[in-house]
C-alpha cells in the first residue's frame, strides 16, 4: 500500500493533484485539490490511501492523517464507497463529523452530500464510539456545535441556492468546509460568503 506521496506538486485540477516523484507523475484524487494550490511547484507530502480493485487502482489524498483515518472508517459503512466518503469529507471538517456521529445528529449528517436518513443512521450505528481517536481535539458538546458552526439547515439551503445559480457539486463541495466553520449566519450571509470563496478559486 502507498501511505504517502512526497515530491513536487506540478498540477492542481478540478478533482486531482499531480505530484512528480523522480520523473513519475502520481495523480491523486482529493477532497479539495485547491487546498494545495499555494504549494504549486513546491515539495509536498500528501497522505494517501491506495484503493485497489480488480478493474481499478486509485490514489486518494488527504491534507492530514486525521482526514485519512476518517476516510478509512467511512468506507467501512454499508452504502458508502470511496467517492461518497470523499464527498462527505468535502462537506464537513473531521471534528464536526465526529461530533455529529457521537451526538447522533441526523440533521447534520443528512445535510452532507449523498447522505439520506438511512445512511445517516447506518453511519451512527457503525461508527459511534469508534471515532474519538480520529479527531481528539473535537468538543463533543451540543453547545459548542451550535456556537462554532453554522446550522446544518442553513448550509443545506445555501447549497441549494448555489445549485440554482449553476454551480456544480464539485464547486460547492470545495467551499462547504469553509462555510461550516462560520460561527453563525443566515442563508443569505452564507451564500455571499460562498460566492466570495468561489470567485477566489
Automatic annotation (TrEMBL):
Stretches the record annotates as Domain II: 64-141
Name under which the protein is recorded: Holliday junction branch migration complex subunit RuvA
Quaternary assembly: Homotetramer. Forms an RuvA(8)-RuvB(12)-Holliday junction (HJ) complex. HJ DNA is sandwiched between 2 RuvA tetramers; dsDNA enters through RuvA and exits via RuvB. An RuvB hexamer assembles on each DNA strand where it exits the tetramer. Each RuvB hexamer is contacted by two RuvA subunits (via domain III) on 2 adjacent RuvB subunits; this complex drives branch migration. In the full resolvosome a probable DNA-RuvA(4)-RuvB(12)-RuvC(2) complex forms which resolves the HJ.
Domain remark text: Has three domains with a flexible linker between the domains II and III and assumes an 'L' shape. Domain III is highly mobile and contacts RuvB.
Main location: cytoplasm
All copies of domain Helix-hairpin-helix DNA-binding motif class, residue ranges: 72-91, 107-126
Function: The RuvA-RuvB-RuvC complex processes Holliday junction (HJ) DNA during genetic recombination and DNA repair, while the RuvA-RuvB complex plays an important role in the rescue of blocked DNA replication forks via replication fork reversal (RFR). RuvA specifically binds to HJ cruciform DNA, conferring on it an open structure. The RuvB hexamer acts as an ATP-dependent pump, pulling dsDNA into and through the RuvAB complex. HJ branch migration allows RuvC to scan DNA until it finds its consensus sequence, where it cleaves and resolves the cruciform DNA.
Annotated organism of origin: Lentibacillus juripiscarius
Record family assignment: Belongs to the RuvA family.
Signal sequence interval, chain numbering: none
Amino acid at each position: 500500500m502507498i501511505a504517502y506521496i512526497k515530491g513536487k506538486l506540478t498540477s492542481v485540477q478540478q478533482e486531482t493533484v499531480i505530484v512528480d516523484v523522480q520523473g513519475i507523475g502520481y495523480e491523486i484524487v482529493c477532497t479539495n485539490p485547491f487546498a494545495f494550490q499555494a504549494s504549486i511547484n513546491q515539495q509536498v507530502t500528501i497522505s494517501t490511501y491506495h484503493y485497489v480493485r480488480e478493474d481499478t487502482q486509485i490514489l486518494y489524498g488527504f491534507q492530514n492523517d486525521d482526514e485519512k483515518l476518517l476516510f478509512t472508517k467511512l468506507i467501512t459503512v454499508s452504502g458508502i464507497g470511496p467517492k461518497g466518503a470523499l464527498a462527505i469529507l468535502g462537506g464537513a471538517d473531521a471534528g464536526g463529523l465526529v461530533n455529529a456521529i457521537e451526538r447522533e445528529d441526523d440533521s447534520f449528517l443528512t445535510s452532507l452530500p449523498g447522505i439520506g436518513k438511512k445512511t445517516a443512521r447506518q453511519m451512527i450505528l457503525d461508527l459511534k464510539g469508534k471515532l474519538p481517536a480520529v479527531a481528539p481535539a473535537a468538543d463533543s458538546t451540543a453547545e459548542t456545535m451550535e456556537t462554532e458552526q453554522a446550522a446544518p439547515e442553513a448550509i443545506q439551503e445555501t447549497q441549494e441556492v448555489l445549485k440554482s445559480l449553476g454551480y456544480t457539486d464539485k464547486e460547492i463541495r470545495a467551499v462547504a468546509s469553509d462555510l461550516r466553520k462560520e460561527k453563525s449566519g443566515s442563508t443569505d450571509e452564507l451564500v455571499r460568503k460562498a460566492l466570495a470563496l468561489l470567485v477566489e478559486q
